Structures are given as C-alpha cells and as structure tokens.
Amino acid sequence: MDKRKAANERVKDRLFSALIEFAGHKDWSKLTVTELIEKSGVARASFYRNFKSVEELIDYGIQCMAARYHEGNGCRSEDFHSREAMLYKFRFYRENAEIVLAFHRAKMSVTLLDIITDCEIDAYGDMPVNSISKYELYYFSGAFYNMMLHWLEHGTKETPEAMADEFLRIAGLINPSIES
Q1: Does residue 4 have a pLDDT over 70?
Q2: 112-151 pLDDT per residue, tens
Q3: Which residues contact 72 (CB under 8 A, 6 or more apart)?
Q4: N or C: which terminal CB in the chain sees fewer CB atoms within 10 Å?
Q5: Phi, psi of 126 (to 5 degrees)
Q6: Run of H or E residues at 155
Q7: Measured between alpha carbons, how far is 75 from 62 in angstroms, rounded to an integer?
C-alpha cells in the first residue's frame, strides 16, 4: 500500500475510533463533523476527503467489521450453525466487543443485527425464496445476536466454546458427544 493510502486508512481509523468513543454519550445521529474532528485530531479537509457525512463514517466501520468477519471465517460450510461456525462467531464478536457494544450503546441495534445477518448471508448464502426454510438463517441470526449481546454486556465470563455449545444446546442442535 502506498504512503497516501496508508495515511488515509489511519485517518479513517482515527475518525472511527472517535465515533466509537461517543457511543452511549451522544446520539450518533446528532454528532457533528466538528465534534469528530476535534476528538480524533484529524483535519476537517481530511474528514471530507474520506467521507461525505457521519453516516458514511458509520458505514465505513460496518464495512470494516464485515470484511474482518469474512477474512477470518474459515468455516465456509453450508452449515451456518455447526459448532465450528458458532465458535468462530463467538470468538470474532468477543474480539470486536468494543465496536459491537458501541453500536448497541449508540442505539444502533437494528444496524448491528443487520450486520450480523448480512455476514451470515454473505458467508452461507440466503435461503431459497420459495421455501419456508428461508427464515432459518434469520431466526439463528436473531437468536445469536441476542445471546451474544447479553454475553458481551456481562463481561464474557463464559468461554466462546461454552457459549457455542450453549447456543447449540438451546437451539436443539448440539451433538450429544459435546455435552458436558
């Protein structure tokens, strides 16, 4: 990557970090560019070179998280609720807890759920439109989202392995040989 691109990436990341710091303190829809550049230490021109609005900055963060999710997801099987897939999800979101919780505190839970659902659709494909089974992926994404969010909010006391097993147990999908 050339120096200019690297510098722009650093600017984007600093702005996104500043955005995350506002979570829970100020509604992101009321956040101004001035507040972001003051918190990040980035010049106004640098903001506008990279983004047209605060909403574009939020979208940038979403895209970065989704890209990291897909880059690290080694379980590309058709079974989006296998133990391996569930374990990856709990590990990934634990590693990205700060961002997930920032979106939640910023009252962007629907956006966060959409990110999680879109990551699942991108990784495993959407269900057939002409089948009732099309709802399965959405059901699991919503259930996972709620369980994962509660786990993150309460300090991730359980291991990702325990959470994956518990999710699969609750969903009635756990392999009896995994039960403790």
Answers
A1: yes
A2: 888 888 877 776 676 666 778 778 888 888 999 999 999 9
A3: 88, 92
A4: C
A5: -80, 155
A6: none
A7: 21
Encoded tokens for 34: 């001035």
d(Cα 116, Cα 114) in Å, to the nearest integer?
A: 5
19 neighbors 28 (Cβ within 8 angstroms): yes
Asked if the model's pLDDT at residue 168 lies above 60, the reply is: yes
Residue 169: how many other CB atoms lie within 10 Å: 14
**Model pTM score:** 0.83
Q: How many residues does the chain have?
A: 180
Distance between CA atoms of residues 26 and 21, nearest Å: 9
Could you please report the per-residue DSSP string of 85-99? Answer: HHHHHHHHHHHTHHH
